[in-house]
Specification:
Layout: H1 10-29, H2 34-42, E1 48-51, E2 57-63, E3 66-70, E4 76-81, E5 86-92, E6 95-101, E7 105-109, E8 115-119, E9 123-130, H3 132-141, E10 153-157, H4 159-171, H5 176-197, H6 214-225, H7 234-241, H8 245-256, H9 260-278, H10 283-289, H11 295-306, H12 310-317
Antiparallel strand pairs: 1-2, 2-9, 3-8, 4-7, 4-9, 5-6, 5-8, 7-10
Protein name: Transcriptional regulator
Biased composition (Basic and acidic residues): 1-11
Region (Disordered): 1-26
Length: 318
């Protein structure tokens, strides 16, 4: 009796698997970066946009009414609205969500999703573009065991996250060291907030217990006092302390009562006051020495913290 002929289909299966993997890869690769897709669909440029080496970004847009499809993007997009109340509609497949834009609400577009948007009036919005890798890093550092897929949100009430996103445009001071450190902290804080409130299984992130040792704290503050901008990146500070960014920020605040950004801003303010009081350096020279891009930027930051311009403060203290 003849033996049945056994055909080896494994190579065909391997080819099929490879083809499927390649197709999935191409689908991901074909997604536009969020800033590119937003510029396409909004037909304008952002008023401002701050980029981060992690691939994250924060952008402030003012745009006209929108009636178009937002194609899949390679970032999670989280938006906070900053304008008058208005109704809007979002269509995802057969699902229709009708919401109301107002301060304190949040919109989340998970990476890879696509929706049609109908917004009848002009919009003022601040957007966070968050790579999934950043969300995963923060989840790993926080030791969360829950899924990290973000939930689609349409005009969802979340004043805490909304206020955090909007704060990005208020706090940036045109000082590279301060602004970079602030963005690093804000992005990690927002990722933590998203994990806690906007995933399929929201999780409770346990607070860090205990601060930095005196030796590690001294090393961190020495870095923050450094004139080298590269030394004050959150990644460098955390690495030097032997901690993740997530745990370093919490331990630093436990030790000092301030976040690294707030500590550095206070230190730069004290430097500015000392130079204004004890030297004859011009305000322009002091602004440059402290890393501000212009005298105007320095004066605005100084007045925000003291209530006076640098020139007025100097006159009163002499």
């Amino acid at each position: 009796m003849s033996q049945p002929i056994l055909r080896d289909h494994s190579h065909q299966q391997n080819q099929s698997d490879a083809s499927g993997a390649q197709q999935r890869y191409l689908q991901v690769a074909d997604r536009r970066p969020a800033d590119v897709e937003m510029a396409r669909v909004l037909h304008t440029k952002p008023l401002s946009m701050a980029l981060d080496p992690s691939g994250s970004a924060i952008a402030h847009w003012k745009h006209e009414p929108l009636h178009d499809v937002v194609e899949p993007m390679s970032h999670h997009v989280i938006m906070a609205y900053n304008g008058s109340m208005q109704r809007m509609e979002r269509r995802t497949g057969r699902s229709v969500a009708i919401g109301t834009f107002r301060p304190g609400v949040l919109i989340i577009i998970p990476e890879g999703s696509s929706s049609r948007w109908d917004i009848p009036k002009p919009v003022d919005v601040v957007q966070l573009y968050l790579p999934h890798a950043v969300l995963k890093r923060v989840a790993d550092e926080a030791n969360t065991a829950t899924p990290i897929d973000l939930v689609e949100r349409t005009a969802h009430h979340d004043p805490i996250t909304s206020r955090l996103i909007l704060s990005a445009t208020d706090v940036l001071e045109s000082n590279e060291a301060l602004d970079t450190l602030f963005r690093h902290q804000l992005i990690d804080l927002l990722a933590t907030r998203l994990l806690a409130a906007h995933t399929g299984s929201p999780t409770t992130i346990q607070p860090t217990m205990g601060g930095l040792s005196p030796k590690v704290l001294l090393r961190a503050t020495d870095r923050l006092r450094s004139d080298s901008d590269s030394d004050v990146s959150l990644a460098a500070l955390a690495s030097d302390a032997g901690l993740s960014r997530f745990h370093f920020c919490r331990a630093f605040k436990e030790s000092t009562g301030l976040s690294p950004h707030a500590w550095l801003r206070q230190y730069r303010l004290e430097q500015a006051m000392s130079m204004l009081r004890d030297s004859d350096e011009s305000v322009v020279s002091i602004a440059a020495a402290l890393g501000y891009s212009s005298q105007t930027a320095f004066a605005a930051a100084f007045k925000k913290l003291t209530g006076e311009t640098p020139s007025d403060w100097r006159r009163h203290k002499r």
